[in-house]
Amino acid sequence: MVTAYVSLHTGRPDSQLDQEVSYEGYARLPVEFSDDFGNVKLDVFFPAVQKDSGQILTDIAIGAHERGQGEIFLRVSTLPMLLNAAPPEHRSEQFWIDNGIPAQNAAEFVQTHGSFCPHVVICNTDPVVLPPDLHPIARAARKLFDAGMLDASVLPPKLYEAINDELHRVGVPIIPVTRTATATMTESISKMKSLRAYGGE
């Protein structure tokens, strides 16, 4: 297993310290990755923002070091998020009761909604390092796929095969694809129509 660290940033970072947020209580969070670059989902909560910071979160990064300067493996942009504290009344059970939460659940809402804790969810987080000699088209395809912006099933078969051959050549995980069984579905629909024509169900 490889341990890396998630950080929050107010702009697109070039390193772990670059434009990193600095609200009171903030710290990078450790995450573990398998050595075979499996598809790992990241779902973490950062420490609560207890005082208004005025900072706007725009980017999330995964990098090498728990503290200080370090290399970044993965950057993900996010919708801008103001890192200010939740209103004080949100830490009162009565506030939630007055807003329709049953009294028996009010204490739970104070714990889960009484403070603002940045919540980070990234579906594909394994830090795949792309070597410098990787062909530009294969590099772009792999980056788009990792960012969730490429549906590999729409690629022409020869291009898909060429990209994966190049990824395999340099030791980078290939792009998986699941193609739909259109012919099987058409055949099933035809059989259903035939059954109805003969009065079958």
Summary keywords:
201 residues; 5 helices
Cα radius of gyration in angstroms: 24 Å
Strand order, biggest sheet? 2-1-4-5
Tell how many strands the DSSP assignment holds. Answer: 6
Silhouette: elongated
Q: How much strand? A: 15-25%
| Annotation field: number of helices | 5
Average pLDDT, rounded to a whole number, is: 76
Helix/strand/pairing class, anyone? Answer: alpha+beta
Please outline the major beta sheet: 4 strands, antiparallel
Specify the helix fraction band. 25-40%
| Unreliable spans | 179-201
| Succession of helices and strands | EEEEEHHEHHH
Q: Separation of termini?
A: 54 Å
Concise synopsis of the structure shown:
28% of the residues lie in helices and 20% in strands. It has 201 residues and is α+β, with helices and mostly antiparallel strands.
Protein architecture, described:
The chain has helices at residues 93-98, 103-113, 136-146, 157-169, 182-197; strands spanning 2-9, 29-33, 42-45, 56-63, 72-82, 119-122. The relative contact order is 0.14. It is α+β, with helices and mostly antiparallel strands and 201 residues long. Helix content is 28%, strand content 20%. A 4-stranded antiparallel sheet has the order 2-1-4-5, with no helix packed on it. The chain has a two-stranded antiparallel ribbon with strand order 3-6. Helix 3 (136-146) packs across helix 4. Strand 4 (56-63) and strand 5 form a beta hairpin. The protein contains 5 helices and 6 strands, in the order E-E-E-E-E-H-H-E-H-H-H.
